[in-house]
């Protein structure tokens, strides 16, 4: 197990390093003047020169990269050119919205998808199975931002149960969770549809294994065999998809956060792109990449917990 952890940590560090290099190359080395991109083509030359000095563009590329990487490792992400505040402060404020939103969405998605997938597999080619597959087709086809607009029209405009947008802060946890509920449902529906199909396929595959037939031959009912023998063996592909979905829910919440006017990380990235704040863009994209890589690392560790053969290897 120790060697497995060492290999995974080494792969994690190398992947993060390569991701940071790729982000730096795209935003600062490829053709184009970052200062001109931020100020526009009509900016005066002396203004451009001052911004280049402020951003360190007059220094060699390797020095800028090492300074940026060192700052990222120490938590010093630089100063936003638009807000004139540290990027770390901006990111911390927005993560207090985006992370709870993603966690709530993945909880809703898992609570819906796993039972539906198991029910569909246990009732293969029966009406329950066809109903789950129909739900999954509809869920995949509906864009989450459009579903969010429908939720606003029905639950906010028509019923008046929820506000149409905004976030009251965590001083009142009940009001904060209520404000996140509709966007979390909008994010969760497409992911629940995908996860239900993966769960169904995985459970069906395990149900055909010899050890399940042996358990049934010993007198176990189908329900007991599902609970004791099938579910844990069917969880590995499900855990994979859940890890990918959490990364997507954090990094892909830009549209939903804008629909519900939530001050999250996705909305910060959208605002930074519209204001051409490359400092914020670079740091937020690196954070998204690091999140995806770390979640995949945690999924690998979950594999080792679920499948003892990986620990033995």
Automatic annotation (TrEMBL):
Pfam family of the protein (one): BPD_transp_1
TM helices/strands, residue ranges: 9-30, 99-122, 134-155, 175-196, 230-256, 284-306
Predominant location: membrane
Membrane topology: Multi-pass membrane protein
Localization of this protein: Cell membrane
Record keywords, A-Z: Cell membrane, Membrane, Transmembrane, Transmembrane helix, Transport
InterPro entries registered for this protein in UniProt: BPD_transp_1_N, MetI-like, MetI-like_sf
PANTHER family per UniProt: DIPEPTIDE TRANSPORT SYSTEM PERMEASE PROTEIN DPPB-RELATED (PTHR43163)
Listed name of the protein: ABC transporter permease
Organism (species): Aquibaculum arenosum
Taxon lineage: Bacteria, Pseudomonadati, Pseudomonadota, Alphaproteobacteria, Rhodospirillales
């Amino acid at each position: 197990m120790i060697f497995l952890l060492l290999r995974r940590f080494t792969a994690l560090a190398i992947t993060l390093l390569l991701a940071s290099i790729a982000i730096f190359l795209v935003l600062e080395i490829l053709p184009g003047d970052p200062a001109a991109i931020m100020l526009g083509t009509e900016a005066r030359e002396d203004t451009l020169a001052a911004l280049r000095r402020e951003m360190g563009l007059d220094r060699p590329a390797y020095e800028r990269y090492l300074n940026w990487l060192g700052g990222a490792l120490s938590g010093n992400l630089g100063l936003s050119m638009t807000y004139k505040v540290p990027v770390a402060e901006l990111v911390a404020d927005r993560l207090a919205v985006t992370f709870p939103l993603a966690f709530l969405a993945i909880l809703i998605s898992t609570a819906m998808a796993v039972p539906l997938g198991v029910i569909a597999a246990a009732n293969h080619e029966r009406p329950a199975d066809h109903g789950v597959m129909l739900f999954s087709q509809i869920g995949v086809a509906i864009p989450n931002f459009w579903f969010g607009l429908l939720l606003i029209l029905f639950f906010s405009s028509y019923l008046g149960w929820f506000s149409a947008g905004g976030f009251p802060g965590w001083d009142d946890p009940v009001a904060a969770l209520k404000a996140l509920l509709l966007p979390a449902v909008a994010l969760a529906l497409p992911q629940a549809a995908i996860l239900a199909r993966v769960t169904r396929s995985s459970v069906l595959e395990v149900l055909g294994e010899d050890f399940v037939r042996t358990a049934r031959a010993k007198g176990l009912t189908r329900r007991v065999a599902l609970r004791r023998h099938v579910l844990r063996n069917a969880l590995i592909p499900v855990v994979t998809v859940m890890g990918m979905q959490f990364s997507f829910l954090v990094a892909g919440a830009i549209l939903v956060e804008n629909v519900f006017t939530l001050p999250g990380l996705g909305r910060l990235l959208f605002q930074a792109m519209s204001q051409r704040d490359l400092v914020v863009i670079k740091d937020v994209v690196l954070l998204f990449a690091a999140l995806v890589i770390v979640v995949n690392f945690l999924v690998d560790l979950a594999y080792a917990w679920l499948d003892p053969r990986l620990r033995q290897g």
